[in-house]
Amino acid sequence: MSIGLIYSQKASSWKSCTKIVANLLASYSELRDQHDFIEYFFDKGMSDSKLNHLVKKIEADKNDELIFIDHRPHPLELIKKLSQNNALPQKITFHLYGNFMLDLSYWKETLALLNETLTKFIAASSKQAKVVESVLDVPEVLVCPYPVDESIFKFAPDLRQNERQKRNLGKDDVVFLYTGRFSQDKNSIDLLDLFSELHKKSDTRLKLFLAGTFDDLINPMLSTFHHPNNYQFKYLHHLKTLPKEVRDDIHFLGEVDDEQLTRLYNMADIFISLSLYHDEDFGMSPIESLMCGTRAILTDWGGYHSFACPKTCSLIETKMTAQGAVYDKEMALELTAEAVLESRTDSIKFYHDRFSIKAVSTILTQNISSFFSKSAAISELGEEFLTEAQFAYSTQRTELSASFLKIYRNYASS
């Protein structure tokens, strides 16, 4: 069976997506003894001649199936070309990313070209699958988590000891860690306040390490205008208002590479994220940390729900309101104050058995042999969302649209 894997050879501006594509390729490579995979590069801004050459190559290879595994460029342009050349294969699979809802209008055009093609959609989490099923008329959206490279993100006792010594951490010091983007939807300022509150009440020496970069991304359905670097300014100003003894135990490291991330995950005791990002389809930072054996406290929002485990990952309840998603702040403080890191070994096995490259390859085997649907289309709710989105993007709003609320309730606890 010949299967074409389509992705961009250019690194994404979203660091996590670059890792996801590489890890998905590795998971599919585990199946090369069962299937013949042919890789194709589909890049943004390809010239007509290069795009035509790609279409001819795909047509000549006579694949049984094409699988799009990248988040950009959107498949529409390539699907158009294949359709124009009567070169669409019988089956096409799409791995979906967090930009799915943002690109829903492109998906509408794409599906209109695939009336006679069997299609399959694979979400990264059960919560994302529910969102996609609410806006597409399809029998089912399959779920396959993004894989994590277990050769990089793993527990190393010597690494933990060395990193903690290097940073003058005592044996009983409790280290909280957040890695990722710092923005309004990630509730980064709230995290500072939560740590400050814990710091005041705790008899244990607490530390908070932060790694990542700032951005001004906001929910596009509210169309709130932000000046460039506005959030970073607000964040740093807020940090200065915290008591000095709290500030002294907060360490901002900026952007770090995977080697440094692994050191931080091993050093830390508890990974924490209060994210309510509107398209939090999965969560690479939390799962990488869990693969290294940390405890995690996360909002029960979107893909984070996939990581729940009684002894390892606690979830803070969330709900949708007309002004956006909110989390239970009292519960966040309660769970964080009570968090205790138990056996790292048990934690590591639980997540490696579900999210490693090898584990995901087993899920992909099942997905490849599963059903395809014909004549997928945008649902009535999806059409309503597209209409309301056009209005939202052009005006200032203080409340979310009715369709957005219906769709994104699927991401919340209740």
What does this structure look like?
With 414 residues, the chain is α/β, with parallel strands linked by helices. The chain is 41% helix and 19% strand. The chain has 16 helices and 17 strands. The protein has helices at 15-29, 48-61, 76-84, 104-112, 126-135, 157-166, 188-201, 230-241, 244-247, 258-267, 284-291, 329-338, 344-355, 357-368, 380-394, 402-408, and strands spanning 2-7, 36-41, 65-68, 91-95, 118-123, 136-137, 142-143, 174-182, 206-214, 250-252, 270-273, 295-299, 313-316, 318-321, 324-327, 373-374, 377-378. The strands form 4 sheets. Strands 1, 2, 3, 4, 5, 7 and 16 form a 7-stranded mixed beta sheet that branches. Helix 1 packs across helix 14 and helix 15 (380-394) crosses helix 16 (402-408). The longest helix is centred in the first third of the chain and has 15 residues, at 15-29. It is globular. The two termini are 43 Å apart. The model has no long low-confidence stretch (mean pLDDT 93).
Sum up the structure in keywords.
414 residues; alpha/beta; 7-stranded mixed beta sheet; 16 helices; 17 strands; globular
Summarize the structure.
By secondary structure, the protein is an alpha/beta fold. Helix content is 41%, strand content 19%.
